[in-house]
């Protein structure tokens, strides 16, 4: 078999797997209303501009981890550690740089502008006065003021659209919808894929409907591989968009090599390499031009210089992409 027919076969097989994933996934709830919101958001923001000369850029930031349900009437699922801190913090910095942000986040994870609030803000930030009126506790007043102010500003300007997901099925269907909706923006769209996406899943049609019974003895379960949708994003869904993916490893010895492989394999514009234990302190931006290590400065978020660097690279990408393609 020639190498060209071999690669055609593997591409064909890959597309079949992608088709199978979407065809057999449970239908996304609220598909119509999400699609309407998305369309309105993109219309509003792709025509807006700061100086009337250029299109506003839109970034889709993905955040948090996807779950893999083990039963259709889900009682148990496979999860991962991601807190959504990276995505929430990065969203704040993209907004600061004038981007409109589609924040595709895992329900219950960190939200933009809420990072400095305590875990249970409702109970910890508020208190009752002697007349049983609610007031903000003095020690949290500044954090609450900033959170409310920034949140309302983003809301009023219509520059932040939040879309939640829980399962791998919801996440990939939403990502596909967003990417196809952003396609017309060409190079002005960016994908910043910080979500931790499950590598393995139980296809819906082979999944037990009801709670798996423990009386049946030890559980043997075969997980299918989730098709690598980064390829679909680059080739089909939004081929001109600027695409950044993340690579997380726990073994520093293989991290940079894996990031470089992902860069080439999925034709990314940059891959951000990070290690589990040091992810808030240090990341390496791997691009076709080389590697840049970014370290957190005292009192700052690592996402501040990271987003700044990516915004610069995105500008170069926009300038270098013919607009009429
Ligand atoms: O969500 P978080 O702030 O706790 O962690 C961020 C992260 C490590 C999930 C992200 O930087 C990342 O590497 N995402 C991709 C993970 C992966 O390789 O699938």
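Q: What amino acid sequence fits the structure above?
A:
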């Amino acid at each position: 078999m020639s190498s060209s027919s071999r690669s055609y076969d593997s591409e064909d097989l890959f597309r079949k797997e992608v088709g199978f994933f979407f065809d057999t996934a449970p239908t996304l709830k609220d598909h119509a209303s999400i699609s309407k919101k998305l369309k309105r958001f993109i219309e509003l923001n792709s025509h807006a501009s700061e100086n009337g000369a250029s299109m506003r850029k839109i970034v889709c930031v993905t955040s948090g981890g996807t779950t893999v349900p083990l039963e259709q009437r889900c009682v148990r699922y496979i999860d991962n550690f991601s807190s959504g801190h990276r995505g929430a913090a990065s969203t704040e910095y993209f907004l600061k740089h004038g981007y409109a942000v589609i924040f595709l986040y895992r329900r219950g994870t960190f939200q933009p502008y809420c990072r400095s609030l305590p875990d249970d803000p409702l109970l910890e930030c508020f208190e009752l006065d002697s007349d049983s009126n609610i007031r903000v506790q003095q020690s949290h007043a500044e954090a609450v003021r900033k959170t409310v102010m920034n949140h309302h500003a983003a809301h009023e300007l219509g520059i932040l659209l939040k879309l939640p997901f829980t399962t791998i099925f919801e996440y990939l269907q939403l990502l596909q919808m967003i990417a196809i909706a952003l396609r017309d923006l060409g190079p002005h769209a960016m994908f910043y894929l910080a979500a931790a996406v499950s590598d393995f899943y139980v296809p819906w049609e082979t999944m037990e409907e009801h709670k798996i019974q423990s009386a049946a003895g030890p559980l043997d379960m075969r997980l299918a591989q989730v098709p690598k949708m980064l390829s679909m994003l680059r080739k089909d869904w939004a081929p001109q968009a600027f695409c950044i993916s993340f690579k997380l490893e726990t073994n520093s010895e293989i991290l940079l090599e894996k990031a470089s492989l992902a860069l080439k394999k999925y034709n990314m514009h940059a891959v951000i390499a990070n290690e589990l234990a040091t992810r808030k302190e240090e990341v390496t931006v791997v691009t076709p031009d080389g590697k840049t290590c970014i370290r957190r400065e005292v009192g700052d978020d690592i996402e501040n210089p990271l987003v700044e660097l990516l915004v610069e690279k995105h500008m170069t990408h926009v300038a270098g992409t013919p607009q009429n393609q």
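Q: And what stands out in the fold?
A: The first helix runs from residue 3 to 24.
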